[in-house]
Structures are given as structure tokens and as C-alpha cells.
Amino acid sequence: MHTDLASFQREFAAAILSGAESEFDRWPGFAVYRNNSTIAAIEALAGAYPTVHKILGEFGFRKMASNFFQTSPPESAVLAEYGARVVELPDLRVLSARFPYLADIARIDRMLIEAHLAHDPIAVAGLDAAQIVSAEWAQIAAVFHPATRFRWFATPASLVWLSLRQNAIENLAPPPRGASGILFTRPFGAVGAIGIDRVEYLLLEGFAQGQSVADAAIHAANVQPQADIGAAFKRLLDSGAIHYFEKREMR
Amino acid sequence: MRRTAGIGFKPAHFEEAIACPAAGLWFEVHAENYMVAGGPRLAMLEALRAERPLSLHGVGLSIAGAERIDRTHLERLSRLVDRVDPFMVSEHLAWSRIGQFHLPDLLPIPRTTEALHCIVRNIDETQETLGRRILIENPSHYAPLPGHEWDEPAFLSEVARRAGCGLLIDVNNVWVSANNLGYSPQRYIDALPWRAIEEIHIAGHRPDAVLGDALLIDSHDAPVAEAVWNLLERLISIVGDVPVLLERDGKIPPFSELLAERNRAATCLADCREFAHAY
Fold first, then answer.
1. A176 pLDDT tier (thresholds 50, 70, 90)
2. Which of residues 27-66 of B touch A (CB under 8 A)?
3. Is the peptide bond before A174 cis (omega within 30 degrees of 0)?
4. Which CATH number fits domain B5-278: 3.30.360.10, 3.30.1700.10, 2.60.120.10, 3.20.20.150?
5. Nearest chain A Cα to B71, which residue?
């Protein structure tokens, strides 16, 4: 008999999360609460990590997700946001022999959900590229759409992720090699993903750090002298990653 | 528009949902699925709201928690309510939050006077923040917890009286709980404080894989059982013409099948109105 509501709820929750036999297990129906909680958490994680789910398969993913739930239950009832720490699981390095960079693939799944749920852009009187003359780019900063997410990986995770989004896992043979980058945008409502090269990544990274468009371009050209900076910039413009440009006093 | 029978909205049915001409049709969504910053989910909800009445049904406020309501969660709900202006906001007589964690289920409580005080306090804070009355739904039960000081109809009645909230009665939950705990669902329905009931839910259930019909699961993944339809008719004959919602969360059939099932509920309500006019 529990003396108060708070102790009852603490012990009930502990019995659900531990998975071990508890005083509540004397009722067969208690298993329903444990199962409902675990299944809801697993389904939330499967929704947040669809590519990891595809790679691990149903059994492997459920096992990983169930363990994760017991050690890291949701901290919010908004389950679409659950599971940010899955990418930190040490297990992810060994769960897939074929994709040892599974943690990077999980990070990309996470970027997708972040892009999906991000704020809508606010209407502002910013500049578009056609309004800016060449001499001004040194004073122009790019402002990202709130849903824009990008990252560069030392692994081929981006290439694998993009392939797996379209194909069955069996079609990806042999897996690609080398470093890779990815960009998520949501210019017209739906989220889109494209692979980016090193120059495109350097431009985005420069914009994110507050560099002017000209400075970011100069830095990218220094790192990759053979690259067509103009073509890379145009591709980023076309992707919808940049919401608008604004004139700033640059340092 | 008079709201008769509604359907739990599924994004896969968006096109058919907004094009459906059924009179009195409305939709309900789980609030937590849309308590996000922006993006296509919210855009879809706003498009739906522009065409049809909408109700928000929360699953995560932990109204029956010993702890106070999570202010961050409540403020996010409040922003969603302000954004889509639902005709109804409802929650469950259940808890899910413990400290910093949220267990994603609707968990039971011993119905004690201490619990009653916590629940009334939490509903009060919710209604104050949202600036509107909410409805509280009866839960499904799977285990006969010890320590109850109140039976459930009397407890719900007292919650509604003290907090000034309304009630949402899920007749599938009544059927499932009565089966699992061994009481009469008809007597439960008859004992409810009918003046407080402002919405009714119906859904499907299934027997437990191991225990069979001895343990029914409120699974929302099957058509409404005949026994639940009978219970719905009994409740409608008592409370009259209140909005009825068909819930379906698993093994989702085509929209046309859900609509046919929803139309049966609308007919129950129409029959009730016709009967009422006979006096």
C-alpha cells in the first residue's frame, strides 16, 4: 500500500522503466502499461531515425530503441523531439558492420526531423541576390531559412543516407567511400535534402559564422583553388537554404 | 455548423478530409503531434482548421500527476490553442510525467481524495493558462489498483464539480475497463454525471495476445465493437446530442471506411434528436 500519490507514481514509473519484476506485476494487466510505454517510445524513435531503422532492421532497431528508452526516457510529451541522444550511443559504432559510421547516419536523420519541425521564416524586407551589385558583397551577410541544416562528415554517411532514402539497402553495393556533406532545406514547405561538396560546405559554414558573402567565398577559394565558387554559390541560392541577404557593417 | 460525429484526423487522409461534404463532420488531433515550432505539420493542421471544426486532445499534460503541470508543456499547448482556436480542448484522467521524464502512456492512479486535490489543482492551472474550460476523459484500466477511496463515476463527478471542467466519456474505455476489472459497464454509464458530459469517444479494442478476452486492450486499431455501439446508444439516450468522435490510431483503413463508421455514430445522434423532438 502506497502512502501517497507521489510515492505510488515514483514506484510505478520505476517498475515500467526497470523491466524487472515488481510488486505491480502481480496483476497481469500491468504489462500493458509497460508495453504501451515501450512501444510508443520505440515508434517515436523509428519515426525520428528512419534510416537507422532501415539499416538495423525491425528486430535490431527495436532492441536498440528499447534499451535506449529504459536508460533515456523522453523528457517531453512531444515525441517528435525524442531521442536527440541516440547519436551518442556507443553501441552505434558496432551495431552495423556494413555501416560503421551509423552514428553519422543517425545525425543526418536528426537533421531531417529538425528541418521538418523548425520555425517558419518570418517575413522581412531583406535583399535578394538580384538586388546586390558586385561591390556590395563584402558588406552582405546571408541569413538562413530557419529550417536550413548542413554538415560535413569525415565519412560517406551523407552519400549512403541519400541513397538509402531512395533505394532498398541491397541496392547500395558497394558502399561509397570518403568524406561527404549534406544540406537540408525547406523553402516551400516540404523538406528537401541534397549532397554538397566541400566548397558548398565551406560557403555555408562561412555564412553561419557571420562572414560576408565575399569573405566566405575568398576563404572557400583559398581552401579549394580549383573550385567554381560562383557555381557553388548559385546552387546554394537555388536550394532555398538562404532566406534573404542583408547589408551589415562587417569587421 | 452543428458538430455531430467527428473523426480522429490522420495526415494520410488530408485531401479526403478537407473535401468531404458530410454535414456536421469535425476532426480531432492529438495536441502533442502539433506542438512544434513550424513546418508542414502545422501548415496541414491550419489548412484543415480552415475547412472544418477542430478539437485538440492532449495526451501529455499529466493532469493526474502528484507534481504540478509542466509549465513549458502547458505554454506550448497554449500557443497551439491560440493558433488553431479549437472548439474543444480535452485531456485524460491520467499521469505520465515523473520528474524530468515523460512515460508515453496514460497511467492510472488510486482514486483518493489526495489525488482529487492534485487533479483539481492541475486542471485549474491548465484552464487558467488556456483561458478556457477543458474536458477530462475517463481512462482505460488494466489492473485493479488498491487504495481507491472513490468509484470512478463519483470521482469524475467531483473533479468536474470542483474544477469546473467538463467530461469526455470514452465508451470503449468504459467497456474495456469494465471487462478487465469485472463491473457492469451499463451501471457505470448510468452513474455518470450526465450534465457534465460534452464529448464522447468511440474506438476499437482487441483481446490480449496471451490472456484473450479476459484482458481487452484499448488498441484503437479495429472497428468499434457492437457492444460499444450499444453502450454509445445508451449514453446518448441519457446525455442527448453531444459530439461523438471516432478514434483510430492503428491499422488505419481508407478514409471511406472511417467515414462509414463515423456516419453510423452520426445516425445515432440524429435518432436521439428525433426522439427528443417527439416530446
1. confident
2. 32-33, 35-43, 59-62, 65-66
3. yes
4. 3.20.20.150
5. A76
